Amino acid sequence: MEVIKLQNIKKSFGENEVLSDINLTINKSEVVVIMGPSGSGKSTLLRCVTFLEEPDGGVVKLGEHEVRAGEPLNKQRKKSLRALRQNTGFVFQQFNLFPHKTALENVMEGPIVIKKVRRDIAKRNGVALLEKVGLADRMDHYPVQLSGGQQQRVAIARALSMEPMVMLYDEPTSALDPELVREVLQVMKDLAKEGMTMIVVTHEMTFARDVADRVILMDDGVIVEEGSSDAIFNHPKEERTKRFLRDVGQQKV
Ligand SMILES: Nc1ncnc2c1ncn2[C@@H]1O[C@H](COP(=O)(O)OP(=O)(O)OP(=O)(O)O)[C@@H](O)[C@H]1O
Ligand SMILES: [Mg+2]
Question: Could you give the 3-state DSSP secondary structure of residue 131?
Answer without folding.
Answer: helix
